[in-house]
Each structure stands twice: as structure tokens, then as C-alpha cells.
Amino acid sequence: MPGTGRIHLQWPNCLNVRDLGGLPTSGGRQIAGGALIRSDNLNRLTEAGVNAVRKASVRRIIDVRTPQECEAYPSPFASDPLYRNLPLSRPGDIYDPTLSIDQDYIVMLDRNPDLLAAAVGAIADAPAGGVVVHCHWGKDRAGNVVALALSLAGVDAESVAADYAVLGDRMRDHVAEQLALIDDPTERNQLAELFTARPETMLAVLKHLNDRYGGVEQYLRYGGLSDNQVNALRGRLVS
Is residue 81 one of the residues assigned to a domain? Predict the structure, then answer.
């Protein structure tokens, strides 16, 4: 069975924080513990949560939310030098609610390869220490950036997809609470679908990158990732 990063971190009051250390890479190696962490929105953090982030030796926080989201739900690290806001969309990008989740991801990737490459490059270029990648729920936009970084580091597609599908119990409970507030069954089912995280969704995305670009590395290079960044990312993530 593919390996999954399941080291859930307790950062009060975030709901979906995981250290991806331990995921297997090619050559019998693995992702280093504490090197790459994915999270939901850090604006949920209490003072104890902020302290937990600092104690985790985090040296870069990559927030891939839109500027509007950042203004509405500001990060407690927004004025800190370790923080970077690197949205994965542009103001004119149009969201199509008729698309499936994997199709929505693919549109994002094809539309803005330079923005995705910039986010992965920010992991590679970060000071020595841990890197946190987060969006609002820690599943979709952050999930894609993490999937690209893990793939570039040598984690196989099945393990990347299995990791994408992991949601912590606290996040599942929160989703259930949100769905219970919706009376209309159609609206509730639509929202439930948006909250899903299935391995086949990410497998479809990775297949698309292979079919259209020749793989994740080629896609990221097409988006502007440099040789130095490719090597730096592998060097910092793989133990």
C-alpha cells in the first residue's frame, strides 16, 4: 500500500496540519521530517498555535490564498519576514462550478503554470528549516502545490495521491458540522462534493501532467522553475 504522511500536528486551532516526513521516495529514501508541512488557514491559530509554529523551526510560510482572502482572514504571520503570499490564480480567472474537482485543478494548472512553479520554487528557495504551505482548507490549492513538490522530490504518484486524500478527524468533524447547517439537500450534496479528497482525483491530475507536459518536472520547468531550484528542492526535502 502506498505510504502516506500521517503525522498530524497539534497547532491550536488549525484543523488539518500534517508533517509530510516519512513519505517514501525513489532510491529507498524518504521525505525528511519537518521539511514540508501542509495546513489549513493559519488565521485560525491561537497564541499557543503561533508558538507551536515557531517551535517547529518553520522558516517559510507560503500562503497560496487570494489577496482578498488574506485581507478577510489575515495571517498572524503576515508582517513576518518568513511569510509569502503567492496566489495560484489571477484576478481575471473564472471559476466554473460545473467542473469536477480534478477538472478544476487541471484548469488551474494549465492556466497558471508560472504561479504554480513560483510556489514550488518558494519551497526550494526558503531558508534552511521547515516550510508550511497552506490555503483555506489545506486540501485543494495547498494540496496541488504539495503534490507537485513531492512528485519532484521522487514520491511516486500512488503515494502522492494517497497523501492528498488524508484529512484529519478534526477537519472531518468540522465539515460535518458545516454540512449539517445546510437545509437544501442539493446545496448540501454540492458542498459535500467540494470537501471530498479522493486519491483518484490527484491521480487524474498527475496523469494529465504526464500526458500534456511529460511529467511534473517538465511542467514546473515550463512554468519557470530553474535547475538550481529543482536541485535545491530535492536536497531539502529528501533525507
Answer: yes
Closest CA to 147 of 137, 130, 133: 133
Cis before 13? omega within 30: yes
Q: What element of type H or E holds 85?
A: strand 83-85
pTM over 0.90: yes
Q: Which domain holds residue 51?
A: 7-237
Q: Is the distance from CB of 36 to CB of 123 less than 8 angstroms?
A: yes
Phi (first) and psi of residue 167, to 5 degrees: -125, 135
Neighbours of 124 (CB within 10 A): 22
What is the distance between the alpha carbons of residues 226 and 135, in angstroms, rounded to a whole number? 24
Q: How far apart are the first and last CA of the chain?
A: 21
Residue with cell 517538465: 218
187: domain CATH number? 3.90.190.10
Assigned C-alpha cell, 234: 530535492
Cβ proximity of 133 and 146 under 8 Å: yes
CA distance 235 to 146: 16
pLDDT tens readout for residues 150-205: 999 999 999 999 999 998 777 778 778 888 888 888 888 877 787 889 999 999 99
CA–CA distance, 139 with 164 (Å, rounded to integer): 7
